[in-house]
Amino acid sequence: MSVEQMLDEALVHHKEGRLAQAEPLYRAAIDAEPEHADAILNLTRILMLTSRTEEAKRWLNWRLADAPDDVVAHRQLGFAHASQNEAAQALVSFQTVIELEPTDAGAHEIIAHLLKNVGRVTEAQDNFRRSAALRAPVKFAHAIGNGPAFRVLVLFAPGAGNTPYFYMMRIGTYDCHMLTFVPGIEYDIEALRASTDVVMNLIADFDTAGSQLPHIAPLLEKIGRPVVNHPERILQTGRELMSRRLASIDNCIMPVTRRYTAEQMHDRAYARETPAFTYPLLVRRAGTHGGEDFDKVDDEAALVAFIAQTRAEYYYVTQYVDYRSDDGFFRKYRFMFIDGEILPYHLAIDTQWKIHHATTDMLHQKWMQDEEADFLNNPRHYFKDKHYAALVAIRDSVGLDYWGIDCGIDREGRVVVFEANATMLVHTRFKAFPYKKPAVVRIKRAFDAMLERRAVVAKAAAAKDAAPSSLA
To answer: Which InterPro entries would you find in this protein's record (predicted)?
Structure first.
């Protein structure tokens, strides 16, 4: 078999998702022709998709030693470094892309995100604007199989608390193009409409994106395609708004939460609430997730110290609720809500009230792993009919298409809601917890089905519009 024949066969397997069959053919082509660029680059794509990033980087560096002006190899190496949180190395790779192709809008945007993550905000904003002025939507996920079943336009905004999307959208039967939304930019509406079946709005955080969300709706109306997580609904998901909306749901408690400016915090507005807050309280800098700038304070001195340390524009103050179980452990459950379906994602167990799965001792406690596995496979063993009724009521009140909830169950048997929004993370980085994979696969399938249902509606509407009128 010739090198070109091997590559042709490998590409067929690759496009249809048969990576295990494609990989040895790429390797055989490289053995026969060590400098073959397509074989090397396609092999590295498979290596990155299958979590062998270090090997991918070795191949890419080997390719660049032979072809230092290979833009595709520099870009691929940048993605490899970025996937491993190697921001400095990723910046070098993408800046090289810009040197070779100054009008590469996607590279400008990636550089902007990398700069923002390392605190170089002014430089990041310059790159965001440069990207928005240059670009058409950038394809970041190609459909497997025989061409895309439909096309998803993914709407993203820099620094706006976007919905984590990488795992959910990187592999599917659809193509994904990302459009960076920057207020004031004129977009080519006809081109967007012609290339889009469904819009997935990632701009999801009330606190960091609240000023942008009203400007997004007119763009979506012009595009005229079904939207997942419409910005008008995202505007209703602030922590204070959610605590008020969910307050009347039976067998559910979302602790009283209020949002204050820094000036209001200094003026002790929290001390004048009715009903009154009582210590301990939870306080966080608005717009943060994952436990960042978030703490429990036992008295006013600790609250004042937190404010002085964080120096934020807005804060949330939340009444602390002791949700530990009878055995003394705290349990945090996460459910994902996808087009009305309620699916478990994880259970984290700890001796501390502020729980993150990665910081618990679950890696070393088999009983905790067994309990999480049982929850994922049999959630109704833990959430009884009254709890599911509460989850359904919460779902109906929130009204988003794709979102998540972190919650517990207190000793009175109530669902205690910690947060409910569209910024929840779903990922596959759990080699130490392989029992989690089926739950994540179920979430991914439900997500893809949600997009497909909307694409079917959009295509039917487009076909109807294109059909000739039967009227004389």
So the answer is: TMTC_O-mannosyltransferase, TPR-like_helical_dom_sf, TPR_rpt
pTM for the model stands at 0.75
Tokens 């595709």 identify what position?
72
Among 84, 88, 30, CA closest to 57: 84
Which one-letter amino acid corresponds to residue 380?
R
Using the predicted structure, report yes or no on whether residue 116 has a pLDDT greater than 60. Answer: yes
User: What CATH number has the domain spanning 256-319?
Assistant: 3.30.1490.20
Whether omega before 280 lies within 30 degrees of 0, making that bond cis, reads yes
Write down the architecture of domain 1-101 according to CATH: Alpha Horseshoe (1.25)
Tens-place pLDDT, residues 371-430: 999 999 999 999 999 999 999 999 999 999 999 999 999 999 999 999 999 999 998 888
330-453 has which fold? D-amino Acid Aminotransferase; Chain A, domain 1 (3.30.470)
- The amino acid at 381: H
CB count in 10 Å sphere of residue 7: 22
Q: What is the pLDDT of residues 53-73, one digit of tens each?
A: 999 999 999 999 989 999 999
DSSP per-residue codes, 119-186: T-HHHHHHHHHHHHHHPPPEEEEPPSSSS-SEEEEEEE-TTS-BPP-HHHHSSSSEEEEEEE--TTPP
Query: Could you give phi then psi for residue 88, rounded to 5 degrees?
Result: -65, -45
